[in-house]
Amino acid sequence: MKKAYFISLVGLLFLFGFTTIQTTDSCDKKAMTASCKKKLDQYKYDSQKFTKIIFTKKAQQLEVEVPIFIGEKYRLVFNTSGLPKNVKINIYTKDKEAKKREAIFSTKDAKADEKEFVFDAPRARKMFVDYDVPADSTNAKLTGCMIFMVGYK
Amino acid sequence: MFLKKKSFALKGAFFIVASMIIAACGSDNTKEESITTPVEDSVVAEAETEEITYSLPSPLQIASIFKKSGLKYKAGITSELKDPAKYTTNLNKAINLGVYSADLSYAVLNKQNQEAMTYMKLSRQLADNLGMGSVFDEGNLSKRFEKNLTNEDSLAYIIAELQMVTDMYLDENDQQQVTSIVFSGAWIESMYIASRVFEKGKDKSLNNKLAEQMTILGIIINALKAEEKKDPAITGLIADMVTVKDIYDALPSVKNNPDASDDLEKELTLTDDEVSQLTKKIEALRVKFING
User: Fold this and answer.
1) DSSP H/E element including B126
2) How far apart are CA B140 and CA B157, in angstroms?
């Protein structure tokens, strides 16, 4: 009887442990913020935006509008270390409803293990940061987060 | 003996199956807490597919832009130093935390050290009232601010760091709506200061910057709308901010230059009368904010 209880207990511990691991994403926001701040270098901190990503069966395109002003120099630092799958980052000067737009920055050629990206913005009046979130057919309910930090000088 | 062993083994198997069922239920509960129910989950995913979110600048950057455009220091135009305890609702506390942060930035960039110290203390009190006073203790920010009172550059970096710690705190506590509310207060106060210092017919650069700032009002309103469900008290604030945008959008200079906000080479210049119309509305809203 004792053996049966022991087996059951081990089973329980294993299953609860497994469930916890499955539903916890790896978002160490403090570490991600600290890492981005370092990369701002001489740029003064302005703002940061965390985005929680829930991977679904459908590909998603999330967009963040970033206000910028004439005469200011901007640096954007991205950190994707909190994501279980890579997300492509594109930056445009027009929103996703625009008929024609070209990316002024893209991570499409980035190495798979690259998790931090620095972008010094050219002169522009508007900036739209797009995240192309790939579909996830595994039904594993993958979640994670990414951040971008804006600095100016 | 063999039967007994078999019976124990069967019981063991039963417990494992039972454990699996319990664990499966536990798993669902965990999901409910973190990602909501499966039905809501698909709604979240669907919404996020189309979602556009907004990033707002810091009050310090706005103050810095105005400063670069020639905004001088004028004594007595920042908010009167009243008791933060008079703000009783969280909405008014957050709005006036923004007002104070704009005044703090203006004072720091113009080397008004004692005034800066006062606004720092008032900001701390309001932050305490909002339950987020601990951000001022992160990395000894308050103490470092006092120690560096005579160093404008250091103070600006400390304020930027305070902004970062605050953003982090609000994100971790799922209070992103506070960021939008605080910035609304800061933006109105910054616009008020700039419009009070603006001299008719003389400050073309400041005029351009006032017009440029109006282009982000739409983003502020959209950011507030995105958080409206989280805090219905925001609805009134959105309506207030929309009244300013309506006045700006109806100005002839704005109507006649619909693409001005996209033009890299040309900045929009408002007429003195148009600046006055805008200023009146901003002043009225600022009084409403400060009176709580």
Assistant:
1) helix B113-129
2) 13
**A140, A57 in Cβ contact below 8 A?**
no
Candidate from A23, A54, A70 with C-beta closest to B48: A54
First to last CA, chain B: 82
3-state secondary structure of A46: strand
Tokens linked to A126: 């508007």
CB contact under 8 A, A72 and B31: no
Strand partners for A52: A145
Q: List chain B pLDDT tens, one digit each, 292 residues.
A: 444 445 555 555 555 544 444 444 433 333 333 322 233 333 344 444 457 899 999 999 999 999 999 999 999 999 987 788 899 999 999 999 999 999 999 999 999 999 999 999 999 999 999 999 999 999 899 999 999 998 988 999 999 999 999 999 999 999 999 999 999 999 999 999 999 998 877 788 999 999 999 999 999 999 999 999 888 899 999 999 999 999 999 999 999 988 877 777 778 999 999 999 999 999 999 999 999 8
Minimal Cβ distance to B12: which of A8, A30, A148:
A8
What is the rounded CA–CA span in Å between residue B186 and residue B242? 16
**Edge-to-edge strands, sheet with A105-106:** A105-106, A88-92, A126-133, A60-67, B52-54
B contact residues 111-140, partner A, Cβ 8 Å cutoff: none
CB proximity list for B110: less than 8 A, separation 6 or greater: B67, B72, B73
Q: Which two tokens stand for residue B30?
A: 């965990």
Residues of B in contact with A3 (CB under 8 A): 8, 12
Residue found under tokens 């508007």:
A126
Question: In whole angstroms, what is the distance from residue B292 CA to residue B284 CA?
Answer: 13
**From B45, B168, B262, residue closest to A29, measured CB to CB:** B168
Question: Taking a contact as any Cβ pair under 8 Å apart, which residues of chain B between 136 and 165 contact chain A?
Answer: 156-157, 160-161, 163-164
DSSP, res A134: P
Tokens of residue A45, six digits: 């901190």
